[in-house]
Amino acid sequence: MLVQREEQLTLLRETFQNCERQRKGHVSLVTGAVGSGKTSVLESFGDWAATAGGRVLSATASRTERGLHLGVLGQLLQGPRFDPDTGIRVERLLRDSPAASPEAGRDGGEDPADQVWAPVLHGLFSTLLDLAESEPLVLTVDDVHHADPASLHCLLYVARRLRHIPIMVVLAEARTLRPSHPHFRAELFSQPHFTRITLPPLTVEAIARLVDDDVEPAAREAAERCLRMTGGNPLLTRALIEERPRSATDEEPTADAALGDAFDQAVLGCLYRHEPGVRRVAQAMAVLDRPGGPADLLGHLLDVVPESVTPMVSMLRTTGLLDQDRLRHPRIRRSILADMSVDERRGLHQRAAEVLHEHGVEPGDVAEHLVAAGWAEAGWTVPVLHDAAAQALAAGRPDVAAGCLRLVGRAEVDDDQRVAITAMQVSARWQINPLAVNGQLDQLVDAARSGGWPTHAALSAVPYLLWQGRAEEVEEAITGCAGDDEQAHAAGRRRMMHLLLGLSHPEHLAAVREAAAAPRTALLAGGSSPAQALGLVGAALTPTGDHDTVAAADHLLHRHHADDGMLPLLTAPLLALLWAGRADRVAAWTAVLLERPAARHAPIWRAVLRALRAEAALRLGDLTVAEQQARTALDDLPVAAWGVAAAGPLATLIACATESGRHAEADRWLAQSVPAGAFRTPLGLHYLAARARHHLALGRAHAATTDLRRCGELMRAWGVDVAGLVPWRLELARVQLAVGNKAHATQLLQEQLRAPHGVDDRTRGRALRLLAGTAAPDHRRKLLSEAVNLLQGCGDRLELVRALGDTGQTLQRAGDSAQARLLVRRAYQLAQDCGASVLAQRLVRREPGGVPAGPPAEAPEPEDGLSEAERRVAALAAQGHTNRQISSKLFITVSTVEQHLTRVYRKLDVKRRSDLPARLVAFAEPLGEEIQPAAS
To answer: Contact 16/8 with Cβ under 8 angstroms?
Structure first.
């Protein structure tokens, strides 16, 4: 473990050898920061010297034994085995030595004690001479800065007389704020046979050797991370490496990583070996946790002269605990804080809040210490905490805001302040756990009602009341806060809340049509972001074709996706994209937003984003991702906390289970309690449609029809009859086809296709596929061809599987069995990729006139050539098509294309795509035309 100390050990060994050869003594002082490995160097050198023919006497000084008279010298001389006479003489000298000694290396002057000490020093020195007579003598003293004055006096006496004596004295000391025994050091440094050896911090190369004997790139990367955390301090470095398993060396520990006791103890070991003042500064820095120029703040915090803090900070920096003026790693900070008592931490946090407030620091930074101290007794603390909470909410940190507001709640405030604080508490706590705000929300509503519905209090409660389905109370609040003297800002906010009521509970939408027009105008004119967001949802639910909802939603997301405080706002354009038929954009944007810090700190928005991503994945036919995201959304937020929005993730899970053939699981999701108010919201329509699909899968056509008719009645009554929300006519047509009512199904599908607005490509492709089942054979292939193109373009792989399967069945009946098998094979693979194994098996089940039973298998591979699938992929690649284009044309995944090409290159012995045409001449005839499965 002694790496990067070879140079120092070599110097000590050469010095020993010179002492032995030249019969001359020497003094070496090994210095370094706390934890730099001084003890290891002394022990290693002592072991080597003992094997090299020397006699080694060792001692270790200690702070607690500094007052022990001749304590260090006693350790040196009590170790060796003397003959009886010498042992008695040494014991007598140590016992009879004067209790007081002249200070080692004092400046001039005759001291009466010199005469008393003279025989003792001479006797002890004579004993050392006897020991060095037969072999070189090595005296090592560790932590000499803690040695007692009498022992130092004796050591200095020996050091002055080493010119022609083979005695080597090796001392080790740590850097301290003020050099201990300055007179001893001054005289020691002046000796002609003196050498000072310094131990520097470990380098990356040295740490890499500790991580792994072979300095590989991975070991160097781990060493660089280790260096950033330890500053090259050997004590910290060894503790860190020993605790981290080899398999985990590629990850740098985070602030929350539990490294174990060894690293904690190493940090504390560094601190406790310093002076108490240095440890106190480290504790203050751990509490403050602020970069840049800490001396002034630390001085005020510790109530000491700021100039006295500077050398302590420098000492911590030398030890490796600091990087510039801040603790090097959060894990070090946590170790220091854990060592402090609760009262110590609270006291320092309170003092830190006072000092930072006096220095004009931002409210958020001051509030952090107030919350940690649990103190808000001073008059200035309430406005600071209030401002900090507002800033935290705007920055997407409801957890921080909740902590500030919890502390404000204990302070004495007036009624108006209490209402404002309660409104902010509801907002903050709701984003963490909606179930935690029920009582406070009721208090806020009661206070607003009794106070005549003041605008701020009334409108603050609106989003949370809507979440719980309390639409009537929202309408009462919005109506109650309207007034003739209403300011423009308040009036605009009231109109926006009125629109929010209409969009979340569309039965009220007719009453706010006029208000709904304002955000749409604002959207076109570049109005405020909240107005644009609500306008986008309104445009998706009530499309008019006068502007591009998808482009506007993308623009809003691009503008604000990096702003954590805008995350709640961005759910609106995501909903607009979903209901406008762009599930692919929703999937892409939710993946981006889930990586934002605000999603980690606000469980409500993290859950909502995952629910949106799940529904988007379902519409794209990815059952695996849809189910995983919806389940995780309910893990983030239990069903009871979702309020009326619970219908959203539950509908996705019911649909996933139904599509996967897990009907018992779908029943369990249906057994989850959904508030009755959910069926007054657009998400309730999703739930009805999913439940209808489940009923149909179980053969309950009447129940499915009831749910879908109710869905259609609500959508028409609300004026939001758009397919992107729920294509209820299409779903009802599926039920009619299942019971053999083709005429009614055809009528419903044609109505769906004739809708003036809101029929997206996915809905159109699904409708055409179903309509093909009612058409004559000659027209069926044309409808299926168009359906395949639309579904492939919109990305719904599950519906594409059905369209390909129908196309294959149509070709089979027309006598084109080869092409039918090829299409079914592609559909089967795509279904497996989607996680729809039940649908995949249904594709290959034997039916009258259907394709052969059993999973589609590749045609046998010729002994000297390519399989059928490989030939087709190779031909398209030779014609210049990209992998993605080949995937699209053959209805297989890009990964499958890559696998086929890898085998093609190996079999044909080619290195690049440009070599394929020449090698495929033999296959030119069968590969001359690309397959057009849906051609008329």
So the answer is: no
φ, ψ of residue 791 to 5 degrees: the values are: -70, -35
Chain mean position to CA 720 = 39
Taking only the tens place, the pLDDT of each residue in 770-794 is: 999 998 888 898 999 999 999 988 8
Q: What are the φ and ψ backbone dihedral angles of 232, each rounded to 5 degrees?
A: 85, 5
Tokens describing residue 68: 């022990």
Distance, CA of 400 to CA of 688 (rounded, Å): 39
Say which CATH class 868-923 falls into: mainly alpha
DSSP state letter for 323 = E
Confidence of residue 43 (pLDDT cuts 50, 70, 90): very high
* Burial of residue 262, with CB atoms counted within 10 A of its CB: 0-12 exposed, 13-18 middle, 19 or more buried: middle
d(CA 111, CA 105): 12
- Hunting for tokens 């590749």 — which residue is that? 858
614 within 8 A of 625, measured Cβ to Cβ:
yes
- CATH code for the domain defined by 528-637: 1.25.40
Question: Six-digit token pair at 574?
Answer: 């995501």
Residue 755: predicted pLDDT: 83
Query: Cβ(28)–Cβ(12) under 8 Å?
Result: yes
In a 10 Å sphere around its CB, with 0-12 CB exposed, 13-18 middle and 19+ buried, how is residue 499 labelled? buried
Residue 364 buriedness (CB in 10 A; 0-12 / 13-18 / 19+): buried
> Is residue 14 classed exposed, middle or buried when 0-12, 13-18 and 19+ CB atoms within 10 A define those classes?
exposed
Q: Report, in this order, helix, strand and coil percent for the chain, each rounded to 5.
A: 70, 5, 30
The residue to which tokens 């284009």 are assigned? 885
One-character DSSP codes across 897-929: HHHHHHHHHHHHT-SSGGGHHHHTGGGTTTTSS
Q: Show the tokens assigned to 129.
A: 């001479």
pTM, full prediction: 0.75
Q: Per-residue DSSP letters for 658-707?
A: HHTT-HHHHHHHHTS---GGGGGSHHHHHHHHHHHHHHHHTT-HHHHHHH
Tell me the C-alpha distance between 70 and 147, whole Å: 9
pLDDT digits (tens, 9 = 90+) for 485-533: 556 677 788 888 888 999 999 998 887 665 444 445 444 445 578 888 9
The answer to whether the CB of 597 falls within 8 A of the CB of 396 is yes
| Residue 236 exposure: Cα atoms within 13 Å on the Cβ side | 29
Q: Where are the alpha helices (DSSP H) in 97-216?
A: 112-134, 149-159, 182-189, 204-211
Residue 365 makes CB contacts below 8 A (sequence gap 6+) with 290, 356
Which of helix, strand or coil describes residue 483? coil
Go through the chain and tell me how many residues it has: 936
CATH class of domain segment(s) 6-199: alpha beta
**Residue 123 CA from chain centroid, whole number:** 69
> Apex CA 878: angle with CA 877 and CA 884, to 5°?
15
Per residue in 702-715, pLDDT tens? 999 999 999 999 99
Per-residue tokens: 408: 């404000």
Distance CA 852, CA 728 (A): 35
d(CA 570, CA 560): 8
Tokens of 614: 């799940």
d(C-alpha 894, C-alpha 832), whole Å: 14
CB 263 within 8 A of CB 239: yes
E-state strands within 750-896? none
Burial class (CB in 10 A: 0-12, 13-18, 19+), 754: exposed
Paired sense of beta strands 326-327 and 55-60, if any: unpaired
Q: What is the arithmetic mean of pLDDT over 288-312?
A: 84
Q: What are phi and psi of 317, to 5 degrees?
A: -65, -40
Distance CA 3, CA 237 (A): 12
Contact 907, 865 (CB under 8 A): yes
Q: Report phi then psi at 138, rounded to 5.
A: -120, 125
Please provide the DSSP assignment of 558-580 as one string: HHHTT-GGGHHHHHHHHHHHHHT
